[in-house]
Specification:
The chain is mainly α. The chain has four domains: 36-244, no CATH class; 246-297; 298-389, no CATH class; 400-439. 28% of the residues are buried. The chain is built from 17 helices and no strands.
Length: 442
């Protein structure tokens, strides 16, 4: 009451000063608490990673599971304290989100137990001794599986309810399916890539549907979507601890290309991040070609290098920067490789003209469609060079049967002369139109 009377009795200027100070103080408090939450979250995550990699006094795998399970329950307890004791939702979201993330790690540990039990001494084990599971009894594995399943359902439900209740059913079912894939006791380097690719496509499809909702682009929605993708990254990280394959490298690089070239714009509007991601994705795409060429052929073969040019061409329609530079480098590279292949003395030289004509037609059509001179002229050069390559066969044919070749050539010359005389005006007008249009192209 005294405060209201005081404010009413004072001029308007001091009251504005008080109102200005309150938001400033509140803003400062919000910044400090935000920093504290970030620091606390990072400390918990780094400590958990350190524990999983180093263990504590060389404890067994079974006890390590129970210790990490206790940490998960501790996080959930912190979330309950924030929600019901402090009536504060931000801390509750963080605790339950971390608890859900840690449960995916629990699922991976149970998967390692099942895999080690099924394969025995022949099981592939990571180099880190703290991550190796062996001699775990079936009863303990079954108990861990049941506990993990129950907690996965309860904690995921609580986490997604508080993060994105509107899409609770979708997130819960997708997370449960992803963790079921994570628990599969498979470590084979030839099978894992297909599992990773399938899970990636599944999660990306769900994530794209969630992104269309503006509420899922807020920090809570992004956290829920990140939790949904966590099992995929655990499988990828786990696969890198075992013997890899060329197929696995191709799949992982393909995921990098899709994220850095196609999906990055959905997560950020920062031009710097998009620019850096673009070059990372481009490098990954070229590495896919190089890896495949080394695995299945000779990387010095010009025709095997040719797909690199088409990779740049396909990326040029998706990148945010230097799209014309991509097409320029691609077109020049394709022409140079076509000439190199035709002039080489390798066994592939006989199909090099076919590749030159085919790629030249592609570049020509693209240049006409998008009105770009470089692609158009490079396409013309490739087509003409491919046709001229067969000039040797025409000369041989003429030398073997000169009279037939002379008759055919004479007929062609007469018909050409008649056509030019009859269509003179049309040829001139179309030629002028062609050159005028060509001048306006990029």
């Amino acid at each position: 009451m005294y405060q209201s009377v005081f404010l009413e009795s004072q001029p308007s200027e001091p009251s504005e000063t008080v109102e200005d100070k309150q938001p400033s103080s509140k803003s400062m408090t919000t910044k400090i608490t935000s920093y504290l939450r970030w620091i606390g979250s990072l400390l918990i995550i780094l400590s958990a990673i350190s524990f999983m990699l180093q263990g504590y006094s060389e404890i067994s795998a079974t006890y390590r599971y129970w210790v990490s399970l206790g940490l998960t329950l501790l996080l959930c307890g912190g979330g309950l304290i924030c929600a019901y004791l402090f009536n504060e939702t931000k801390g509750a979201r963080i605790f339950f989100g971390l608890g859900t993330a840690f449960l995916s790690v629990q699922v991976s540990q149970v998967s390692a137990m099942i895999y080690a039990y099924l394969h025995g001494d022949s099981a592939l084990q990571p180099a880190f001794t703290s991550l190796q599971f062996s001699h775990v009894s079936p009863g303990i594995i079954a108990l861990d599986l049941v506990i993990t399943g129950i907690l996965l359902l309860l904690v995921s439900y609580a986490s997604f309810s508080i993060l994105a209740r509107k899409h609770l059913k979708t997130l819960l079912l997708a997370a449960f399916a992803a963790n079921m894939v994570l628990i599969l006791p498979i470590r084979d380097a030839q099978i894992i890539p297909f599992i990773i690719a399938g899970l990636f496509l599944f999660i990306r499809q769900i994530e794209q549907g969630l992104h269309s909702d503006s509420s899922m682009q807020l920090i809570e929605g992004l956290a829920a979507r990140a939790l949904l993708s966590l099992p995929l990254w655990i499988i990828i990280g786990r696969s890198l601890l075992h013997p890899s394959s060329s197929l696995l490298a191709t799949v992982i690089l393909g995921i990098v290309v899709i994220y850095c070239i196609y999906d990055i714009k959905r997560y950020t509007s920062s031009s710097l991040i998009i620019y850096i991601a673009q070059w990372i994705g481009t490098f990954a795409a070229i590495t896919i070609w190089a890896n495949t060429s080394l695995e299945y052929g000779d990387i010095t073969n010009p025709l095997l290098i040719l797909p690199a040019g088409f990779i740049l061409f396909s990326l040029s329609g998706q990148v945010a920067y230097h799209s014309r530079l991509y097409r320029f480098v691609s077109a020049v590279t394709i022409v140079g490789l076509n000439f190199s292949a035709m002039l080489s003395q390798q066994d592939i030289s006989f199909i090099a003209p076919v590749a030159a004509i085919a790629s030249g037609i592609f570049l020509t059509i693209y240049g006409m469609k998008h009105r770009e001179k470089i692609a158009f002229f490079c396409g013309n050069i490739s087509v003409i060079s491919g046709i001229l390559f067969y000039w040797e066969y025409a000369v041989n044919l003429y030398s073997n049967t000169p009279w037939i070749s002379s008759i055919i050539l004479g007929l062609f010359v007469i018909l050409l002369a008649s056509y030019i005389e009859n269509k003179e005006q049309q040829i001139k007008s179309k030629t002028h139109y062609y050159f005028n249009q060509l001048k306006s192209w990029n």
